[in-house]
DNA sequence: AAACTTAATGAACAGTGTTCAGTAATCCAA
DNA sequence: TTGGATTACTGAACACTGTTCATTAAGTTT
């Protein structure tokens, strides 16, 4: 049926339109001001229309999150050019932090905000969170190489991933949420301290 | 003037009443359901009344945050009983993580949520964030001892603090925000991995 | 052309933080 | 003790938010 096909295409086209407007809004005015009503106004549809394509706002944000992870994944592939696993690790660690600091609102969506994870909070097990898979597996792969080549202190792959991820996420999220104010430093000093902290950490996890 | 004094006392008493209701509400039903209206209903006053004692919700949350940090500070002092700085470091690191996992809503307020830090986002410099001072200085003190006694790898006190803090905050915040779902483990396994990660990290920062 | 199906919406609901005019209670001087 | 000033409090409103649903408009099928 050609008509059904066209309808299908139109449906996808509409979703794309919504996603595009949401992403632009996210990057331009931030998460807090990206409301269903604002998105609807941007694409010149009624707010109710959005609910014909997304069950609720969380579902929309979930899709948006997937796109954000796609962006991060691309960045990873771009930056991880080094030969040794340790070099690659350094490159993606720094890429991660840079991404977080440059696109704080996307970072929010991916790693901080409650929103698109609400269904997953009560581990019902039916469906897991798979948005971050790309990026996480990319990290795991490099770690595996590091362990295989006996360059990494860690024995357990997952513990290694958790350690590295927690460190960089800790740095980014404390910074974007202004908690580093407690250190009473100027902005430059803080950025410097973050860089040094990463370097020190990367030195420590080497054998 | 005795009357002015009494008025002052009554004003403070009212603030205390509001804070108590807010804290109870925070712990019982969480941040998301702690609205000005709900608090007002709990203390049997009009919502508008709260605005006679707090300029806005952020100011209220700021006070609440201060109380939360007081709680964490007490926990630190309680748990840091070890003799060596490294033992104390381990004790407060684990106390921090335990606090975060047991009281996720308070942890939110202290380290994750944007809310009470909004004024500080555009570093106007007029007033800094001093709620976390107690806890941060407690950490700095132990680190200083560790460096003095040449037990810690770090040279810079602040870098050390940032590294340790970022690690534990990373672990807690990724967990309370369900991002560890990406690892596809059961809850027990995750908690286990967190513990191991802390242990591994503490080993690494020792000389 | 009539009947059926689908897409879109206006209006409403329940919730949020916040403001402000107006009321009620208290205090102080005459 | 009474009248006027001060203070404490609140109801109602405003401008938002996400979400639902009956109704309208458009497109498709018979």
From TrEMBL, chains A, B:
InterPro entries annotated for this entry? Homeodomain-like_sf (IPR009057), HTH-type_Tx_Regulator (IPR050624), HTH_TetR (IPR001647), MT1864/Rv1816-like_C (IPR025996), Tet_transcr_reg_TetR-rel_C_sf (IPR036271)
What region holds the HTH tetR-type domain?
A: 12-72
As one GO molecular function, the record gives:
DNA binding
* Pfam family name, one: TetR_C_33
Q: Which UniProt keywords apply?
A: DNA-binding, Transcription, Transcription regulation
Q: Which residues bind DNA?
A: 35-54
The family database entries (SUPFAM superfamilies) matched by this protein are listed as: Homeodomain-like, Tetracyclin repressor-like, C-terminal domain
Q: Which Gene3D superfamilies match?
A: Homeodomain-like, Tetracycline Repressor, domain 2
Q: Which domain of life is it from?
A: Bacteria
| Segment forming the signal sequence | none
Transmembrane stretches, start-end: none
Question: Would you tell me the protein name for this molecule?
Answer: Transcriptional regulator, TetR family
């Amino acid at each position: 049926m050609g008509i059904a096909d066209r309808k299908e295409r139109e449906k996808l086209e509409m979703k794309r339109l919504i996603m595009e407007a949401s992403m632009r809004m996210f990057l331009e005015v931030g998460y807090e001001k990206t409301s269903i009503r604002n998105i609807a106004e941007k694409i010149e549809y009624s707010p109710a229309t959005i609910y014909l394509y997304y069950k609720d706002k969380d579902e929309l944000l979930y899709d948006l999150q997937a796109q954000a992870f796609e962006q991060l994944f691309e960045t990873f592939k771009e930056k991880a050019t080094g030969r040794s696993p340790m070099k690659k690790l350094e490159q993606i660690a720094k890429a991660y932090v840079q991404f977080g600091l440059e696109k704080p609102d996307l970072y929010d969506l991916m790693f901080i905000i409650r929103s698109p994870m609400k269904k997953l909070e009560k581990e019902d097990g039916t469906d897991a969170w798979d948005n971050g898979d790309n990026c996480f597996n990319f990290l795991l792969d490099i770690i595996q190489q590091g362990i295989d080549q006996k360059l990494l202190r860690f024995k357990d792959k997952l513990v290694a991933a958790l350690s590295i991820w927690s460190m960089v996420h800790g740095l980014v999220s404390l910074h974007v949420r202004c908690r580093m104010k407690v250190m009473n430093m100027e902005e430059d000093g803080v950025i410097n301290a973050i860089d040094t902290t990463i370097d020190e950490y990367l030195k420590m996890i080497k054998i």
